[in-house]
């Protein structure tokens, strides 16, 4: 994401969308009542023959809409912003949906840009320069390739010897065939020289690393092999929350969020310095007991969530917004969407 223009007096920020993660950030940034301006296509109605309901061709135009709904469509790489047209060449007061994707430019107008809005913009810009981390989770004869986005883990491919069947007539897939297919898929997903994490139980992960090192050394230039109790996305989440990753994954947003949620769960288990649930966390915030506030991204939009974030920071605490799109977020949601690591125990 890149900020192209900013007018603080009018509350206008113009940005360029650079990747899928930017769309996720925007989904959490754009709120009900904001004005979003972008170039779009809208059909021009034929006003001369309303009985036949002739429909004109879609024309390119810039529209400003007052936002009523925002949807992030991960699998189509689209952000859909629905609202009422308030500025443009036609159809004022009618509904329109802006479909935004990579490369698009848009302007967001808010009455007030709050601290967490600006923090999210800053994070999106900083994270855009970081290379994507690719995971290969392996068990004997089973492989999963996934990519870590800023909002969670996106599964990209699965390979299995058992479902692969015969390679040729009368010849079943061998372990080397399996590795070869994994490499071919990996090449279509990751850029040579970008970070790679190979994980899983047993020795399959080490064998695959050696196979890559022998035949495709450019793929393991920045690779790390990590043990896990299982393969698949379950194994990936295990590594993220265990704190064993270090190295390549250190400081990555998803890894950091998962780690902090796990810290909260450890405190809960041992009866330590913790609080969870909206009412309990609010009480702890008002007492000045909160050292770190964990809040689910969807809770940031309501006034109660905003109040807790603002007061926590005023009293010297730290606020971490946790994405609902990964396992750590799911666990925080089960706790009511609010959690806190405390300076001292609160009854």
Write a structural description.
The protein is an alpha+beta fold. It folds into three domains: 126 residues, Pelota, domain A (SH3 type barrels); 117 residues, Nucleotidyltransferase, domain 5; 89 residues, 60s Ribosomal Protein L30, Chain: A (2-Layer Sandwich). It contains ten helices and 18 strands. It has a seven-stranded antiparallel beta sheet with strand order 1-2-7-3-4-5-6. Strands 10-9-8-13-14 form a five-stranded mixed beta sheet, sandwiched between helices. It has a four-stranded mixed beta sheet with strand order 15-18-16-17, with helices on both faces. Strand 16, helix 9 and strand 17 form a beta-alpha-beta unit. Helix 7 runs parallel beside helix 10. The longest helix is centred in the last third of the chain and has 17 residues. It is flat. About 1% of the residues have low confidence.
| Shape assignment | flat
What's the CATH C level of the largest domain? Mainly Beta
> Which residue ranges are poorly predicted, with pLDDT under 50 across at least 5 consecutive positions?
164-168
The biggest sheet amounts to: 7 strands, antiparallel
Helix/strand class: alpha+beta
* CA(first)-CA(last) distance: 44 Å
Order the strands across the largest sheet as they lie in space.
Answer: 1-2-7-3-4-5-6
Number of strands: 18
What is the CATH architecture annotation of the largest domain?
Answer: Roll
Determine the CATH topology of the largest domain.
SH3 type barrels
Helical residue percent band = 25-40%
The count of domains is 3
Order of helices and strands: EEHEEEEEHEEEHEEHEHEHHEHEHEHE
């Amino acid at each position: 994401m890149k900020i192209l223009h900013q007018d603080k007096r009018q509350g206008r920020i113009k940005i360029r969308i650079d990747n899928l993660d930017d769309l996720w950030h925007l989904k959490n940034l754009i709120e009900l009542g904001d004005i979003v301006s972008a170039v779009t296509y809208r059909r021009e109605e034929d006003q001369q023959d309303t009985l036949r309901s002739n429909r004109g061709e879609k024309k390119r135009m810039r529209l400003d809409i007052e936002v009523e709904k925002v949807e992030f469509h991960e699998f189509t790489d689209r952000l859909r912003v629905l609202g009422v047209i308030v500025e443009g060449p036609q159809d004022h007061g009618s509904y329109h949906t802006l479909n935004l994707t990579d490369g698009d430019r848009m302007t967001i107008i808010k009455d007030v840009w709050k601290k967490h809005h600006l923090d999210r913009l800053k994070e999106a810009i900083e994270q855009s320069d970081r290379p994507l981390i690719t995971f290969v989770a392996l068990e004997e004869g089973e492989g999963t390739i996934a990519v870590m986005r800023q909002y969670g883990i996106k599964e990209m491919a699965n390979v299995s010897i058992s479902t692969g069947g015969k390679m040729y007539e009368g010849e079943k897939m061998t372990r080397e065939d399996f590795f070869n297919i994994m490499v071919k898929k990996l090449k279509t997903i990751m850029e040579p020289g970008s970070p790679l994490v190979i994980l899983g139980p047993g020795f399959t992960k080490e064998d695959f690393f050696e196979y890559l090192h022998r035949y495709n050394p450019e793929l393991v230039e920045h690779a790390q092999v990590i043990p896990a109790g299982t393969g698949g996305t379950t194994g990936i989440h295990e590594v993220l929350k265990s704190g064993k990753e270090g190295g390549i994954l250190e400081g990555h947003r998803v890894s950091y969020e998962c780690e902090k949620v796990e810290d909260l769960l450890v405190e809960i288990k041992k009866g330590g310095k913790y609080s969870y649930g909206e009412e309990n966390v609010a009480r702890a915030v008002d007492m000045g007991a909160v050292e770190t506030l964990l809040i689910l991204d969807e809770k940031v939009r309501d006034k109660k969530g905003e109040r807790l974030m603002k007061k926590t920071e005023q009293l010297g605490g730290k606020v971490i917004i946790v994405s609902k799109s990964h396992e750590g977020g799911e666990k925080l949601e089960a706790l009511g969407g609010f959690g806190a690591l405390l300076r001292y125990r609160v009854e």
